[in-house]
Design a protein that fits this description.
Length: 332
């Protein structure tokens, strides 16, 4: 995984997680309904108690601000929008609090050492002091970023240590899925090809002529040789489905046989030519080839169902108290 994307990915939850959260919001009416019969939270600065563990107003506000860093010139949100977004954020925080408590009960609590180790992995991909500069440029407080990192680790731990071990996939399930969803495992024609490009047309012609003399088994070595010899030469290799070929190349590539070059063209930046290396005919993945794909898909489906069941069961037993002022404002 590219660790450089970590700080940016902290800006939003994974799409599937947000789908989970939104479903929970609808099903439990932003959890406020559950707490309606409970005594409210009176302590200043605390917006909710989850089994006695506090969620603070600054956490709610920080998350809200973090989600709207890019507003800038936008108009202020309306009251209904604020109520909805704060409700979703509170649901999010309550959910994570329950996950943290589940992990702690199982002796799997996220430790400071784990957070520090993950942070070091992220920092490793940045030049010295560059990581802090990026956080400052994106208006992200380092402590808040660490809190979000801890939540991410908790979520991953919960999935892999609590839910995943409860999932079992047998061969018959995989076989049944394969038979009922054959279209998912159909592979259309695919083509492997190279694009030679250069701002100098004569140099491009020389490179192509030299490559044409190369034996197939020595092709990669020849490309390296050509790159060194022709400093402006650029060669990219692609392996794509025919139905996904860029329109500008598709017509030309479909007409070429393996080993054939297209005419040299000019895209206003460079001169370029295409050469087809191999065409793979349409095929259907065999069950053994599709097994890992199906197993992963079924695993994700079962984890999703287990997650919803865990949320429902946990909320039935949880004692959740909402600050009366916040509760009233969220309910409008």
């Amino acid at each position: 995984m590219n660790r450089k994307d970590e700080s940016r990915r902290m800006k939003s939850k994974k799409r599937n997680l947000w789908q989970f959260l939104l479903c929970i919001v609808v099903f439990f009416e932003v959890i406020i309904a559950i707490s309606g019969c409970q005594n409210g939270v009176q302590e200043p600065g605390v917006v909710a108690l989850v089994n006695g563990s506090p969620i603070y107003l600054h956490q709610l506000e920080a998350k809200y601000d973090f989600l709207h860093l890019d507003w800038g010139e936008s108009l202020p949100p309306g009251i209904e929008q604020l109520q909805q977004e704060y409700g979703e954020i509170l649901t999010n925080l309550i959910l994570y609090k329950l996950i943290e408590q589940e992990l702690a009960a199982r002796g799997l609590k996220v430790t400071g050492e784990e957070v520090a180790a993950r942070e070091e992995e992220v920092r490793h991909d940045y030049p010295p002091e560059e990581f802090e500069k990026i956080l400052i440029e994106e208006y992200i407080d380092l402590n808040y970023w660490r809190e979000q990192l801890k939540l991410r680790i908790a979520w991953e731990k919960f999935i892999h240590e609590v839910l995943r071990p409860r999932v079992r996939i047998d061969f018959q399930e995989v076989q049944d899925y394969y038979q009922k969803n054959l279209s998912e495992f159909y592979l259309p024609q695919r083509i492997r090809f190279l694009i030679f490009s250069s701002p100098d047309q004569e140099e491009l012609k020389k490179a192509i002529a030299s490559y044409k003399k190369t034996k197939t088994y020595a092709a990669n070595a020849k490309l390296e040789e050509l790159r060194k010899k022709h400093s402006d030469l650029i060669v990219h290799e692609y392996f794509m489905r025919v139905d996904q070929l860029p329109f500008i190349w598709a017509g030309e590539i479909k007409k070429l046989n393996p080993g054939e070059f297209s005419r040299i063209k000019n895209d206003k930046k460079n001169f370029y030519s295409l050469v087809v290396l191999k065409k793979e005919e349409p095929s259907l993945l065999e069950p053994y080839q599709a097994y890992s794909i199906i197993e992963d898909k079924l695993t994700q489906q079962k984890i999703r169902r287990l997650f919803f069941k865990w949320v429902a069961d946990t909320l039935q037993k949880a004692e959740i108290k909402i600050n009366p002022k916040l509760k009233n404002s969220l309910k409008g």
